[in-house]
Amino acid sequence: KRRIGVMTSGGDAPGMNGSVRAVVRMALHSNCEAYAIYEGYDGLVKGGDMIKEMKWEDVRGFLSEGGTLIGTARCMEFMQRDGRRTAAKNMILKGIDALVICGGDGSLTGADRFRDEWPSLLEELVKEKELTAEQVAPFKHLNIVGLVGSIDNDLSMTDATIGCYSSLARICEAIDSVDTTATSHQRAFVVETMGRHCGWLTLMAGVATGSDFIFIPEQPAKEGWEGNMLNIIRKHRQMGKRKTIVIVAEGAIDEKLNKITPHQIKEILSEAGLDTRVTTLGHVQRGGQPAAYDRMLSTLQGVEAVKAVLEATPETPSPVICMIENKIVRRPLLEAVAQTKKVAEAIEKKDFRTAMELRDAE
Ligand code: ADP
């Protein structure tokens, strides 16, 4: 029976458990065996008990649990070839030659690198007598399938990543709570949200909560933004609005490339006569139960991941399972990661024109 491994890696995201559940159950349904790799690449490098066979009942209740129950970690050893060789050995000892990874672009990059090196890692293992030629013979190719788990919705080539709608829901709940007190006291609140390269959460939260003004990395605030923001806020107040909400993404900047901070905005609003508070949402945005959308997305993508494993040939490039215009589709993993990196690099270099063009091209 084919053995398929599943793991979660990088930053946790609500819905990761749903993908583990779907991969395990779809693997069993397809007459394969399923293995969970605990603590991300750490589990692969450590092997032994960190790689456990999963039965149907082992993933019961996973769908509605936040975070990742099989754990995640950042693993330095896997960044080194030696670490990846040990990982390959552990997989062969368990008879696993297919891996579904739910993680961010770092995790997916590492996975494809592992697939690429696989034949030479096996050669080395045999040469150094860690495994015999007979042991490695049945495992010529490694199949990798990626699922994107990220609250930021920052991967190219997919409309939604697993976790982003749960995070958005959490942000909206938090802003609703701030709203009630803001309205009661006629206060202004500056809310800081996650997103160093990607303003999706901030933009969507702005729309979903009817906030007055937002700042995102992709669109640096134009010169004179302070006056523009105050004019808009004054207009809203004149229309009878009793509260003011400004949302600032972590990576927000102005046209001169200066970082825009929540405290800076607080100063501006306070000087304009508004009683202003700052709320940093921080890790609250990552946690809690997955929203219905993420349960659905992770389930459909987990099922598709197992299908992709079973249909793969040695020539098939590693796929990442995406959602495009409400359809579950496969895209080349490396292309999706390369495109994501280009956007992040362009933003880092403050080359917003290129960043926006790349985003538009998606
Ligand atoms: P994310 O997957 O959320 O982007 P990281 O970038 O921290 O998170 O990656 C998670 C883990 O994936 C790392 O700790 C490392 O073990 C592995 N990894 C990331 N990039 C590579 C790489 N280029 N080569 C090998 N492994 C990698």
TrEMBL record:
Gene responsible for this protein: PFK1
Locations listed in the record: Cytoplasm; Mitochondrion outer membrane
Positions of the UniProt region annotated as N-terminal catalytic PFK domain 1: 1-362
Binding site for Mg(2+): 105
Protein name: ATP-dependent 6-phosphofructokinase
Binding site for ATP: 11, 74-75, 104-107
Phosphofructokinase domain mapped to chain residues: 3-309
Similarity comment text for this entry: Belongs to the phosphofructokinase type A (PFKA) family. ATP-dependent PFK group I subfamily. Eukaryotic two domain clade 'E' sub-subfamily. Belongs to the phosphofructokinase type A (PFKA) family. ATP-dependent PFK group I subfamily. Eukaryotic two domain clade "E" sub-subfamily.
Domain of life where this protein originates: Eukaryota
Protein task: Catalyzes the phosphorylation of D-fructose 6-phosphate to fructose 1,6-bisphosphate by ATP, the first committing step of glycolysis.
Subunit comment: Homotetramer.
Sequence positions that bind substrate: 150-152, 187, 194-196, 250, 277, 283-286
Active site, renumbered: 152
